[in-house]
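Fold sample X.
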Amino acid sequence: MVPALSRRRALQLCASTVALSTAGCASSPAEPTGPDRAVSSPEPRPLDSCPTDEEPSADEWPTVGYDARNTGANPDTTGPKNEVTERWTFETGNWVQSSPAVANGTVYVTSRDRTVYALTASEGSEQWQFETGIAETDAEDTVPSEAGMRSSPTVVDGTVYVGGGNDEVRRRDGVVERVDNHNYLYALDSETGDLEWKFQPEAETESSPTVIGDVAYFCCTAGNVYAVDTTDGSQRWQFTVDDESTDGITGTPAVANCTVFVGSWGGTLCALDARDGSVEWRYETDEAVSASPAVHDGTVYVGVNGDGSVVAVSAEDGEVEWRYSTDGAVVASSPAVADGVVYVGDYGVGSLEAIDAHSGEAVWTASTPGYIWSSLAVVDGVVYASDLRNTVYGFDAADGTELWRFETGGAVRSSPAVVDGTVYVGSDDQNVYALTGASLSRSPTGSGGRRTEPRKTQIRA
């Protein structure tokens, strides 16, 4: 059987050859489309058929929302239900705000040091790292911007897809001017970290790409949605929510039944045909949507900033099914959906909400000391959450009882990934944590898994 990587590289070579001989397949037919070139196709190239989706393996968490629908729930794996302790930690060069992806025994994660890391899931030793963007400029009056990576990796068929980079900027009289764009969607060999190709969007990519078949769907902060061919990095189509800069997109697209669902900071939830990017429907939420929508059983669930609500709309026509109001003003957490319940974090007051997926009625509410920014994970009857008071939690999915908590050395904006009894999560203390079950007694404060000082794992030679 031909390995997936070999097939992909063969397709890249074929695509490059075709680009040299066929007009319209790349931005310039004579330009090379190798890994060191940013490739694009300004002319739309719609898909002939709907991309087909495959459920992730039970022993993987390949993208921030677990699957292409962003449900945040894996029904076929396990996670710690009692006290937890560090299995290992790995120190990066800056905050870790992205969600780890886990595939084939490897943890992939990004840091605001603009680096992608591949770590062994068993012990956290580094396999490789890849730096995005630029560290210096050639001109004397320009500097690299300090923007760091927030995009979470997606791992499919031997390739890591992730957004990253920064800008070359010039500062004059207190005004920052962008001189050049060095933001890309990168495709990296999952085993070596070698660059397969890169595609340049108009602006920074904070969301994670959603990969189905041979297409990667992702967004940028300029309000664009892109469909990119994974075989060579060429553009299939592009959609812009609006021409206004306030309509940036930071959430990850959810893809289900040949439709791409995205929300914008301008207050629009869009349903796009996955084949050509045409609009199927638009729903105006009246307030910003910063998080990713989730799709389950024909319904789209999304959090709304400003009024702190969670909205359920029909995936078919965008009609509102129900609207649930939290006690806060901001819902930055993407909903997770499992067993007929929608779980979402409230950034405004620091609470975890469980909502009946069909009626929109409250099932239970649990309080946390800190605001919940990150999305949730639901595995084997446990809701895994984190907050800005440095803490990772496990809650009983049935009634909201707190099962355990673990303190890191910084705010936790990273969403947990749960695989085979272990929780992987990043922290603003620059560390990636692997947390596993432990037979530790509960401390007087109710905290489980006493934290040791962050340490850097041994780097594999």
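Fold sample Y, listed below.
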Amino acid sequence: MAVVRLKGVCYDVGREMLGRNWRPEYDPVAVGRDIRIIRDELHCNAIRLQGRSPERLHDAAKLALELGLEVWFSPELWDHSRDETVDYLAGASEVAQGLLDAFPGKVVLSVGSELTLFAQGFVPGENVLERLAHPKLREVIFDPSTRSAFRAFIDRLAHTARGRFRGKITYAAVVFEQPDWEPFDYVGMDLYRGDPMFDRYAQLLQRYSTLGKPLVNTEFGCCTFRGADRWGGRGWEVVDWNHWPPRLRGNYVYDPSAQANELTALLALNDGAGVHGTFVYTFIEPGSGPPAGTDAASLPKLDFDPDLPRYALVKTFYPEQRLGTTFPGVAWEPKESFRAVADYYGRH
């Protein structure tokens, strides 16, 4: 069996959606502890840093680089126009170049992720949730004019990055996107399993491995409930987030073992397909707990474990704010999936 060269995990430094930062409180000391655990306990040699703030990305990247990890620098501006996205990437590319100057050969820049959905202008809707709910979503994304406009946009992003960053670049695509991979050094694919591709996942990996450039699975994972393996990247949809308090849309059972088993299977499938690198989504989802200073007594009581729709390898505490017991000083506890990934990466 082939051995994946890049053994990584995604790490959120503060993505933003609908005006809400997924990491409202950013503590460099806590982030540094997490990254050291990612290296020492998860046995990762790479980390994909995701977030909106180039400053936060820079700080986290510097910590990771000083610990010897390869950094996949992934600035993400969601729900903005194409011109705004290009301008944003230009600034973020200069930040990434500064890191590359200090750590040659250790920084890869991602120019974007799943932008057909996350950028404005391809699918009608003011935000990604509206676009995902569009009644003619499939028709729009497969329309030749949409595909042509998307390819031109990705080429523009690649050109922008190349003008400011002298290292290797990639783009993290979803399966229905067809960027021209010529300007890129890696084929980056967010390849969750789930239906309808559950039974042909291995064939998908093989298809993207034959494009003439190293394939990196930039994002894949599984939520924490029984049957989540069949939901893939849309496991969060089992919760009705429009209802307050949020509630399950059906009878779903919290099951950490289901998540752990699926991640082990996915890692083996990627390894067997000769994938160059894997980034498990995700290490932590800070948004699963209340913002710092929130009165726990004022929060609504959920009728399900709030970790159920999460992809994270660690469980943050909700609604109470307390420290875990496995690792000193961290406000989370490793799940079965943490141990599964650590075991797999440690043996391969």
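Sample Y note: The two ends are 10 Å apart (CA to CA).
Also: The chain has a mean pLDDT of 93.
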